[in-house]
């Protein structure tokens, strides 16, 4: 018979320990990034569009300039397509700029120039997928919902499932989202920190090719990290010899 139960982290104590260690690390290691200082939905949205497939350092350069030129949804909605493209010039993946512009026009066109706070509504807007919907709901509105990007999927897979080598099939994605949903704290402010912290861990420590397990705050709880003791030491020796 098919199993219908939603995957969750089986041991609540383990989930709590993961969150505790992660948030303690975040408090001392988080990067100071401009989009983390705002809860303005439009500013969060712009950062999320820019961060899709683009390095943080590059976005940090474009983000303030774009916001200076288009400080809110209404201004962006009224701007000619050429001006939006010009402000995006150099960031690449111009479909993002087109989608952001159409999103602004569709939202501002309703006479209510604001963004919904529900991921189920956000996902109906141009250029917004499940990750961006969760990210805007969490980072702008402090909703206790998951936001699973590539970094988060990698961390959750390595910690709770034990490997990240398999391709993310639809079923595997569903499992990871369910695990993420079971881990996100119920308190919105804590959920904001949790989502930021998992992403940061994936960006700085649990990186794709050579995870830095010896430095990782959640290593004692990680299925992959525990078995990488020898590999990690070998990798460290290798990197020192370069
Ligand atoms: S212990 Fe290693 S594999 Fe596990 S989360 Fe940390 S960096 Fe990633």
Describe the structure.
- This protein is mainly alpha-helical.
- Helices cover 60% and strands 0% of the residues.
- It has 13 helices and no strands.
- Helix 1 (12-29) packs across helix 11 and helix 2 crosses helix 3 (56-69).
- It is globular.
- The termini are far apart.
- The model is unreliable at 230-242 (pLDDT under 50).
- The site of iron/sulfur cluster (SF4) has 14 residues, from helix 9 and helix 12.
- Iron/sulfur cluster is lined by residues 155, 158-159, 205-206, 211-213, 216, 218-219, 222, 224-225.
Helix content: 55-70%
Give the overall average pLDDT: 89
Q: Low-confidence runs (pLDDT<50, min 5 residues)?
A: 230-242
What is the molecular shape? globular
Task: Provide the structure class.
Answer: mainly alpha
Assess the beta-strand content as a share of residues: under 5%
Beginning-to-end CA distance, first to last residue: 54 Å
Element pattern in H and E: HHHHHHHHHHHHH
Query: Would you report the number of β strands?
Result: 0
Bound molecules: iron/sulfur cluster
Largest sheet: none
Number of helices: 13
Task: Give Rg in angstroms.
Answer: 19 Å
């Amino acid at each position: 018979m098919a199993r219908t139960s939603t995957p969750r982290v089986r041991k609540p104590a383990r989930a709590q320990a993961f969150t505790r260690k992660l948030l303690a690390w975040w408090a001392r290691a988080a990067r100071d990034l401009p989009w983390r200082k705002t809860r303005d939905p439009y500013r969060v949205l712009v950062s999320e569009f820019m961060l899709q497939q683009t390095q943080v350092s590059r976005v940090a350069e474009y983000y303030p300039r774009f916001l200076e030129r288009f400080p809110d949804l209404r201004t962006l909605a009224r701007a000619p397509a050429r001006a939006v493209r010009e402000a995006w010039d150099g960031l690449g993946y111009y479909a993002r700029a087109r989608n952001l512009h159409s999103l602004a026009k569709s939202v501002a066109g309703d006479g209510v120039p604001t963004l919904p706070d529900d991921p189920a509504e956000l996902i109906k807007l141009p250029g917004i997928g499940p990750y961006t919907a969760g990210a805007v709901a969490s980072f702008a509105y402090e909703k206790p919902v998951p936001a699973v990007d590539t970094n988060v999927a990698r961390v959750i897979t390595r910690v709770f499932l034990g490997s990240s080598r398999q391709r993310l099939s639809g079923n595997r994605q569903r499992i990871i989202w369910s695990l993420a949903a079971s881990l996100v704290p119920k308190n919105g402010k804590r959920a904001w920190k949790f989502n930021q912290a998992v992403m940061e861990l994936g960006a700085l420590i649990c990186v794709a090719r050579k995870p830095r397990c010896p430095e990782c705050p959640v290593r004692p709880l990680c299925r992959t990290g525990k078995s990488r003791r020898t590999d990690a030491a070998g990798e460290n020796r290798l990197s020192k010899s370069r």
